[in-house]
Design brief:
The complex is a heterotrimer of chains A (420), B (277) and C (306). Chain A folds into two domains: 28-146 and 305-373, D-Maltodextrin-Binding Protein, domain 2 (3-Layer(aba) Sandwich), CATH 3.40.190.10; 148-304 and 377-419, D-Maltodextrin-Binding Protein, domain 2 (3-Layer(aba) Sandwich). Helix content of chain A is 45%, strand content 16%. Chain A has helices at 2-22, 47-58, 73-85, 100-105, 113-116, 125-130, 153-158, 170-183, 198-207, 225-238, 254-262, 273-280, 318-328, 335-339, 349-352, 354-357, 363-368, 381-399, 403-419, and strands at 29-36, 62-69, 92-96, 132-133, 136-137, 140-146, 148-152, 187-190, 266-271, 288-291, 295-296, 299-300, 302-311, 343-344, 372-373. Chain B folds into two domains: 1-64 and 239-258, no CATH class; 68-232, MetI-like fold (Orthogonal Bundle), CATH 1.10.3720. Chain B is built from 13 helices and no strands. Chain C is 73% helix and 0% strand. Chain C has 14 helices and no strands. The longest helix of chain C has 34 residues, at 16-49. The two termini of chain C are 30 Å apart. The model of chain C has no long low-confidence stretch (mean pLDDT 87). The chains are: A alpha/beta (420), B mainly alpha (277), C mainly alpha (306). At the B-C interface, α1, α4, α5, α6 and α7 of B face α2, α4, α5, α6 and α7 of C.
């Protein structure tokens, strides 16, 4: 009998604990925020934690829980899709530029444009455009960056190239890649071969004046004459010239790109500021430079990367969530970007961010923001990319399909996909 | 060929040697990599042995990595899930193996049903259950998920082992006046020890290595289990192979130690008095 | 105990036969309760979705569309490719795991020095967390710094390094090998436990009769562990059929579907196309394949065991 009483007591106690867990202090709003693990490298000493603590001091009725989560489509985006579909998830997520339109279409994040009001003018135009879905803005631009290229100055010297005057046109780039491959033990250029190099292909493609989609974003345009010419140029460099090493065919992450560059497997790679971040943490004994992506017939082009802060559609604390976002995208918290060697999407970042002010090396990346553009911000982008473009690139590389046929087939498949 | 002949023994060790190389080469590669300096890892051509031993990676993980926390989280979750599973599974296996219940074979097949579905699609509904129970971001959620996920295999494995044990001994115990269930517990269970140990290790390793549930249910860094911690660690140091491998080695050794302990003490101790006698 | 028993019998007024049934029900109840409460809902949840038009990018209505998802999947050439890769994947993995696992268990059950240490060492691949194992293999396969290419080129087996995971012809084999490596110790453990339960008297009798090792193996060992072998092959079939993380980390099913299996196909349908109607339909088809297999093969196990 005693046992039964003890057991009942224990159960009541447990139930009490569960209930107590759910009850919050009077008038206090609690918000959960997912941040990339890379903003949390110094753990509780990280700038984002310090800034959030200051925010909570100023707003004693809001409690913010920062939840560092490993970045990656499987570990971050897909986890958010799973939990938000399950009716849960954090109030705020730090979100990749390419995922925002998808999540907006899924209605798992809320529009924030109205709340932003005039604050919109404080950010660069293109990140805002990238977060727009059906005329509504779904994310407050957070960090931003543009693709440039990294080159190994020592290998440049060995190949007889001028390390202080890196290639500025695509034909110069191709010539340099060939020289490095021929004159040194390294290959000229490395890319993410796992995706058929289709990511790196965008920049020359755009620079030749081609586009993947028509302006209405509903029809394919990649098999235009410019598109075919640009792709032909690109594929010839990769296949006929043989400037890309075999090892590069399995690379699928920025880490592998940075590692391939640091080990002098290749003399040139494309990269965002993240590659710079990674290289800063590696040991190697050569000097390197960063340059703007080369010019094509239609000028320069670069891919816009970065991230936004978005609010979960399930969140019941929209106001508090936005308040925190507002604070984290203000001038006061720009040191958060300095710590993680990123660039804020604020137009005035260059005036305030210590990291940008006197950093000659990454200046070309910052300047590339002027002409960088997002990949088409349509919800079906992942599918267009994975199911139509990449497979055709694979067929060109592995099965010897002609560029002409591949682009025509890709265009046909894109049209079908977008018409659905 | 006689099993005492030298030739036979040479053959035995030879085949064992080949299997052993296959099994542990990647692990040896992990260990030697962990002992290399950061610069030496990425040199061409690759070296098998480090030119000098570097213990810094292990030190670094031990001191500033959170892997120790993750390690103990995993230990806790996997142990509780394993013990609970094994107790429930032993009961069920006795039921399947020693009692005639109409329809029990179909029931046994039904047990496996949950394992026939790809895990990625089971995660969202599991998440819904945990949310309704209000136990997301707790180890309890993982423990429940792991029990439900390891139980079917454990029941099947144990039933198989119980079936292999002759019934005469428990029947003679029953003549002494013990109930059937009592006789099974006292006589059959000890004889099944090797099987129970194997099942326990299997259950433990499945729970110890599970990734996708842990990744979906757990948000707080302090509650992460080892696979999630290692994954985060990999995101941070993805090509710092020496650090990564040190983490992997540290996470592997305790399981091996546990296994060797079980082998030596539990199996040797119990079986000597049983079947062999 | 005996006294308590008769008291219970008197109270319940049941025959020993009935009582045994009650005991059996009580024994099975905890397992049933856990499995059917936790598992039934997720399965039904997915089954229902497979008949609906669910594309996350088109939120709003999710009308029932009958077998439409199944029709789409069954007419998708990539599904058939993934299915045939899955067959190759499962058959080779189960075959090699059984061979390696059973033979190493038999060897490790002989009189050997340092037997315990050997058993522990052979277990290592199984204890390494899957994520780490996959990354390690990815690195061993590396076309520049990978140790495998280095060995093969040094020994003259290959003229030049191969990008094992990036090559059409080698990708599938290159993901199968690590999976075998990772899981064969499971078969070993399972078999070893069965071997340890074979009464020593059987062997002693055989030795008196002058039976060789191979005869003992053929007439005593293998027949005694037959049910375990069936069980091991059943479980490894289920696991390899549904294995995901090794392939995903190594190749994501690529290059260009060269190592696509059904699990990676399902993942892509879910999280690249966001079409959960089609992904759950694929999963139900996979379920059906395995279910038929378990029913047919399970019969053998019951036959062997009872």
């Amino acid at each position: 009998m005693k046992r039964i009483i003890a057991l009942t007591g224990l159960l009541v106690l447990l139930a009490g604990l569960f209930l107590a867990n759910g009850v919050q202090a009077q008038g206090e709003t609690e918000i959960d925020v997912w941040i990339y693990q890379s903003f949390y490298e110094n753990e509780e000493d990280s700038a984002i934690v310090k800034a959030t603590e200051k925010f909570m001091e100023e707003n004693p009725n809001i409690k913010v829980n920062l939840i560092p989560t490993v970045y990656g489509s499987g570990s971050y985006r897909d986890k958010f899709i799973r939990v938000s579909r399950g009716g849960g998830g954090p109030d705020v997520i730090m979100n990749d530029i390419i995922w925002v339109p998808q999540m907006a279409a899924m209605e798992i994040i809320q529009p924030v444009g109205d709340m932003m009001g005039d604050k919109k003018n404080e950010f660069f135009e293109t990140p805002l455009k990238a977060a727009t879905h059906e005329d509504k803005i779904y994310g407050v631009p957070y960090h931003t960056n543009a693709l440039g290229y990294f080159y190994n100055k020592d290998l440049f010297r060995k190949a007889g190239l001028d390390p202080e005057d890196p290639p500025d046109t695509w034909s110069e780039f191709r010539a340099a890649a060939n020289l490095i491959t021929k004159e040194t033990d390294s290959h000229g250029f490395g890319y993410m071969g796992h995706w058929g190099g289709s990511f790196e292909w965008f920049s020359p493609f755009w620079a030749f004046g081609a586009n993947v989609l028509e302006d209405n974003m509903k029809e394919a345009a990649l098999n235009s004459p410019q598109g075919k010419m640009a792709t032909e140029f690109w594929i010839n460099m990769v296949t006929q010239d043989g400037v890309v090493p075999k090892a590069s065919s399995t690379w699928k992450s920025w880490e592998e790109i940075a590692s391939g560059f640091a080990t002098e497997t290749v003399g040139m790679v494309f990269g965002f500021q993240n590659v710079y971040m990674k290289l800063e943490n590696k040991s190697f004994d050569f000097d390197y430079g960063i340059a703007k992506l080369p010019k094509g017939r239609a000028g320069r082009a670069s891919i816009l990367g970065g991230g936004h802060l978005c609010i979960n559609a399930n969140s019941e604390n929209t106001e508090a969530a936005y308040k925190w976002i507002d604070y984290m995208t203000s001038v006061e918290t720009l040191n958060v970007f300095d710590e993680s060697k990123r660039t804020s999407a604020r137009k005035d970042a260059i005036e305030h961010q210590e990291f940008l002010k006197n950093n000659k090396k990454i200046e070309p990346l910052f300047e590339s923001l002027e002409f960088a553009q997002p990949r088409p911000p349509i919800p079906k982008w992942t599918q267009v990319d994975y199911d139509t473009i990449q497979p055709e690139f694979m067929k060109i590389l592995h099965e010897g399909k002609s560029v002409n046929d591949a682009l025509n087939d890709a265009a046909k498949n894109i049209d079908e996909l977008l018409a659905e | 060929m006689n099993e005492n002949s030298t030739l036979f023994n040479i053959l035995l060790y030879f085949v064992l040697g080949i299997f052993l190389i296959f099994a542990i080469f990647p692990f040896l590669w992990m260990v030697t990599t962990a002992l290399k300096s950061g610069g030496e890892v990425l040199t061409y051509p690759p070296k098998i042995f480090p030119s000098s031993f570097h213990w810094e990676s292990f030190q670094k993980i031990w001191t500033d990595g959170n892997l120790m926390i993750y390690f103990f989280n995993s230990l806790k979750v996997a142990s509780i899930a394993t013990v609970t599973t094994i107790i429930i599974a032993i009961l069920a296996a006795i039921g399947f193996s020693r009692y005639d219940l109409p329809g029990s074979e179909s029931l046994k097949v039904l047990f496996l049903v949950s394992q026939l579905f790809p895990l990625v699609l089971l995660v969202t509904p599991y998440y819904n259950i945990m949310r309704i129970l209000d136990i997301l971001d707790t180890h309890l959620a993982l423990i429940i998920a792991y029990i439900s996920f390891v139980l079917p295999f454990s029941v099947w494995m144990l039933t198989n082992y119980f079936n292999a044990i002759p019934r005469d001994m428990e029947e003679s115990a029953m003549i002494d006046g013990t109930t059937k269930f009592g006789a099974i517990i006292r006589v059959t269970l000890p004889l099944a020890t090797p099987g129970i140990v194997a099942t326990t290790i299997n259950a433990f390793i499945l729970a110890w290595n599970e990734f996708i549930f842990a990744q979906t249910f757990i948000d707080s860094p302090s509650l992460r289990t080892l696979p999630i911690g290692l994954r985060a660690f990999m995101g941070q140091y993805q090509t710092d192979w020496n650090l990564l491998m040190a983490g992997a080695v540290i996470s592997t050794i305790p399981v091996i130690a546990l296994f060797m302990f079980l082998q030596r003490h539990v199996i040797a101790g119990l079986t000597s008095g049983g079947v062999k006698g | 105990m005996a006294q308590k028993n008769s008291k219970e019998n008197a109270l319940l007024n049941v025959t020993p036969f009935m009582k045994n049934r009650i005991v059996a029900v009580l024994l099975l109840a905890p397992a049933c309760i856990i499995l059917f409460t936790v598992v039934a809902y997720p399965l039904l949840y997915n089954l229902i979705m497979s008949f609906q038009d669910i594309n996350l990018l088109r939120p709003g209505g999710t009308p029932f569309i009958g077998l439409e998802n199944y029709k789409v999947i069954l007419s998708d050439p990539i599904f058939w490719r993934a299915l045939s890769h899955t067959a190759v994947w499962v058959i080779s993995i189960v075959g090699f795991e059984m061979f390696l696992g059973v033979s190493s268990a038999i060897i490790l059950n002989q009189k050997l020095r340092f037997k315990g240490a050997f058993r522990g060492l052979m277990l290592i691949p199984w204890t390494i967390p899957g994520v780490v194992a996959a990354f390690t293999w990815r690195w061993m396969y590396d076309a520049r710094f990978g140790i495998l290419n280095h060995f093969l080129v040094e020994t003259g087996i290959l003229n030049e390094a191969v990008a094992w995971l990036g090559n059409y012809n080698t990708a599938l084999a290159a993901v199968i090998l690590p999976q075998i490596w990772k899981n064969f110790p499971f078969v070993m453990i399972l078999t070893l436990a069965a071997l340890q339960s074979i009464p020593v008297e059987l062997y002693e009798g055989a030795k008196v009769d002058g039976a060789t090792f191979w005869q003992q193996l053929r007439y005593i060992t293998l027949p005694s562990i037959k049910p375990t072998l069936y069980l091991a092959s059943l479980l490894t079939t289920i696991w390899s059929f549904n294995a995901f993380s090794m392939i995903w980390i190594l190749t994501e099913g690529g290059p260009a579907h060269a190592s696509e299996v059904l699990t990676t196909f399902v993942y892509k349908k879910s999280f690249q196309a966001f079409n959960f109607g089609q992904s759950t339909a694929t999963a139900v088809i996979m379920f059906a394949i395995l279910f038929v297999f378990v029913i047919l093969y399970g019969k053998k196990i019951f036959g062997g065991g009872e």
